[in-house]
Amino acid sequence: MRRLIVPTHLLQRAFANLLPGGLLVCLLAACASAPTQPTRWSITGGERAATAAGKLPPGLQLRVTAAPWINQTGFLYSLDYKAAQAVEVYAQNQWIDRPPVLIEDLMMRAYAQARSSPQPARAAGEPRPLALSLRVVEFVQHYASATESEARVAAVATLSESNPAQVRSAMFRAQVPTRTPDAAGGAQAFSEASDQLIEQVFSWAAAP
């Protein structure tokens, strides 16, 4: 059986006879370009946090939340040199999950890594497991100029403990300059800033 090969220009002419010219152009343009998928980022590392977590008792309960405007997958940035209070979202860059989820995952991994080695038995009368909650109040890449930016992370930590029963809270901040003034540089800087922030929180929680 012979294959019938129809030249492309004849097919286009046939469609032109069946469809309005504008619609044909739209169809051809749609076939020529596919929608661009956004780049999705995460935060990695946690070495400093894991070292600090080694001072915490077993059974730590962790919970991380965030201010509503941060509780999204949009990658936030601010052009401080143009409008200091205006926060924007990168058009083609997102987080793989909401920042409080990413930070909680990093805290859990660091704590699990610290507890993976054998631990001494707890003596009678030691405090029961701690409950540590964190509320993220800043997670924004700030631009001082078109070529200079930094990742800023801030959170309020609340620690509930017993024997004796007490509740205390404190604010923590971390900021790390980006290696490149873009989302890729921001994602790397956020990993380092989050690690530093968690290290501060764990050290504070472990202090008597």
The total beta strand count reads 7
In the CATH hierarchy, what is the architecture of the largest domain at level 2? 3-Layer(aba) Sandwich
Distance between the termini: 87 Å
Strand content: 25-35%
Q: What is the 3D form? A: elongated
Top CATH class of the largest domain: Alpha Beta
How many domains, as an integer?
Answer: 2
Sheet having the most strands = 7 strands, mixed
- Helix/strand-derived category reads alpha/beta
Multimer state: single chain
Mean pLDDT: 85
Element order, helices and strands? HHEHEEEHEEEH
The CATH superfamily of the largest domain is ABC-type transport auxiliary lipoprotein component
- What's the CATH topology label of the largest domain? Rossmann fold
How many helices?
5
Helix content: 25-40%
What does it look like?
- By secondary structure, the protein is α/β, with parallel strands linked by helices.
- It has 2 domains: 7-36, no CATH class; 39-117 and 127-206, Rossmann fold.
- 34% of the residues lie in helices and 31% in strands.
- It contains 5 helices and 7 strands, in the order H-H-E-H-E-E-E-H-E-E-E-H.
- It has helices at 8-18, 21-32, 47-53, 99-115, 183-206; strands at residues 39-41, 61-66, 74-79, 88-95, 131-145, 148-161, 166-177.
- Strands 1, 2, 3, 4, 5, 6 and 7 form a 7-stranded mixed sheet that branches.
- A hairpin with a 4-residue loop joins strand 6 (148-161) and strand 7.
- Helix 3 (47-53) crosses helix 4 and helix 3 runs parallel beside helix 5 (183-206).
- The longest helix is centred in the C-terminal third of the chain and has 24 residues, at 183-206.
- The radius of gyration is 26 Å and the shape is elongated.
- The termini are far apart.
